[in-house]
């Protein structure tokens, strides 16, 4: 009985504390930037609008959040349960409203992120004053977010099947002009890419568009530009723009297999959520790969990717010394019966000092797509540097810079990882030169690897 009384008292005390939270900037509700959707009751405090079209004196609820150590963009998905207008005021302190980063969700929901020109500081507290039209529940999913497709080099692949995305944390451009998107200004540009499936026109459809334009009347729509070439040297093709819940844009007639880069920007700096897909397009990785990234350990490179939706087939990891000529170094089977957010990883145990990686996807119908290219540079990690003659005939001439003298294992392997030659060699600190007879090796691509207990270096060469 005593335990029950204490429990009731604690529940009553907790309820009182929760209802008091959020009524002022001095006692805000703390938002965790962990992407978890949570429900919050509006506070008992009321007030007037500070920037949106007035809807009278209605409930005011204060929130605060703290940015992470890198100052990533805070992205919030906010919905009012009464489906009526919401005003989201952004404050850098309790008395400092930043109008450019504040939003008016006139239909009761939307994506909030700071203005594209506002730089969030690491480990810094910011405040949100959320004004709802009635006393209701506020649903918020908050997260730290860095969009992978904020520039051309991170462009996401699109296919015939629509993917869902948003441009709330994007910045304008870069590397392109507003006129190339049939626009006056660029604020929140998101990048995509595809291949032309058959010679002719490709059509891009952006649907289920929901945009919010700060404190202005919200106009849904996009400005769109098509490019070919490479991200380092984009060639403009054509552009289009349009408003409404669905916007379409058509390329000029292009040869089959043309790689096309697509930049889209919300009208008037809109934070938008939308679906995007294409006609007469084939995806780079069939539009299923959200991220393809790599990171370095002391002995290896780790490649990781995540699928938005799983398709049957497998993945080939490819490696290049120059970013042009790629060779397969591993195969990863697709995980069947998985629909969303399937994570994959591959370890390159014999990394180059400077290696370019890409991912090739092959589905069960033999349809193939390729990913963006990523570069992993290990020159700051490895204590070894290899220079060799490439291509090589009967002799492999080696010039190596060694950071630590000692015994090193040398070996030559084929692209399937089979060891064809191996031996140990004592090397001095600094420059070392020697030769390896490779006259007994067939023509083809090989890797020379040198390693000890501390360092490892790997370099590809072609035997002629």
Any overview of this molecule?
35% of the residues are buried. By secondary structure, the protein is mainly beta. Strands 1, 3, 4, 6, 7, 8 and 10 form a seven-stranded mixed beta sheet that branches. Strands 12, 14, 16, 17, 19 and 21 form a six-stranded mixed beta sheet that branches. The protein is built from one helix and 36 strands. A hairpin with a 2-residue loop joins strand 6 (86-93) and strand 7.
Summarize the structure.
The chain is mainly beta.
Features:
six-stranded mixed sheet, seven-stranded mixed sheet, disordered N terminus, 464 residues, elongated, single chain, mainly beta
Q: So what's the overall shape? A: elongated
Number of helices: 1
Radius of gyration: 28 Å
The strand count comes to 36
Distance between the termini: 88 Å
Question: How confident overall, as mean pLDDT?
Answer: 85
Helicity range of the residues?
A: under 10%
In the predicted model, the low-confidence regions spanning at least 5 consecutive residues are: 1-19
**Main beta sheet strand tally, sense and closure:** 7 strands, mixed
Alpha-beta content class: mainly beta
Q: Beta-strand level of the residues, as a percent range?
A: over 45%
Write the layout of secondary structure elements.
Layout: H1 2-20, E1 29-30, E2 34-41, E3 46-47, E4 58-66, E5 73-80, E6 86-93, E7 96-97, E8 103-105, E9 109-112, E10 125-132, E11 137-145, E12 156-157, E13 163-166, E14 189-196, E15 203-212, E16 221-230, E17 233-243, E18 247-250, E19 259-266, E20 271-279, E21 281-282, E22 289-296, E23 301-307, E24 313-320, E25 327-333, E26 342-348, E27 354-363, E28 368-370, E29 374-377, E30 384-388, E31 395-402, E32 406-414, E33 419-427, E34 430-437, E35 444-451, E36 456-463
Parallel strand pairs: 1-4, 12-14
Antiparallel strand pairs: 2-11, 3-4, 4-10, 5-9, 5-11, 6-7, 6-8, 6-10, 13-20, 14-19, 14-21, 15-18, 15-20, 16-17, 16-19, 22-23, 23-26, 24-25, 24-27, 27-28, 27-29, 30-31, 31-34, 32-33, 32-35, 35-36
